[in-house]
Automatic annotation (TrEMBL):
Keywords: Heme, Iron, Metal-binding, Transport
Residues that bind heme: H47, H71
InterPro entries assigned to the protein according to its UniProt record, in alphabetical order: Globin-like_sf, Globin/Proto, Globin_bac-like_CS, Hemoglobin_trunc
Signal peptide: none
Protein name: Group 1 truncated hemoglobin
Pfam family name, one: Bac_globin
Cofactor: heme
One Gene Ontology biological process: oxygen transport
Gene3D superfamilies per UniProt: Globins
């Protein structure tokens, strides 16, 4: 059996630090910061890590059906989704994941686009 992306890079602790770097980048975007002003960031980092753990072949820790509800009130346009996805990709490159694994993760994230954006 192929090793999951989750296990390949060291599991939860490593993923958690990758996700922390991702939100650092988001918080540095003047365009994105307003979405997160009243959000408990450490709780969000935990939820995002659990989501990625679940979709990257680790233990199931997050019910992806919750994504739609979590984002509905935020009214996120496609351009902000694209910016966030770009920051995730940048984070994964800086964290030295291999290109095919980055492509796979970006594919998985893109597959949730319609749960996140408001059209
Ligand atoms: C790129 C794909 C994205 C993924 C995989 C993702 C994933 C998540 C997850 C797992 C949560 C936690 C939900 C919960 O508490 O159950 C969350 C919350 C949140 N996301 Fe996203 N997200 C994405 C894109 C975005 C974008 C584009 C924005 C804004 C531009 C955004 C803004 C937020 C905010 C503000 C919360 C906190 C909501 C709250 O706690 O009330 N997300 N996201």
């Amino acid at each position: 059996m192929n090793e999951s992306i989750y296990d390949k890079y060291g599991g939860y602790t490593v993923l958690h630090s990758v996700v922390s770097l991702f939100y650092k980048k988001i918080m540095n975007s003047e365009n994105l910061i307003h979405y997160f002003e009243n959000v408990d960031l450490s709780r969000l980092i935990d939820h995002q890590t659990k989501f990625l753990t679940t979709v990257l072949g680790g233990p199931i820790m997050y019910d992806s059906k919750l994504l739609k509800k979590a984002h509905a009130a935020l009214k996120i346009p496609i351009k902000d989704f694209t910016e966030v996805a770009g920051l995730l990709q940048e984070t994964l490159v800086e964290s030295k994941l291999e290109k095919p694994d980055i492509d796979k993760i970006m594919e998985v994230v893109a597959s949730f686009k319609n749960d996140i954006i408001t059209t």
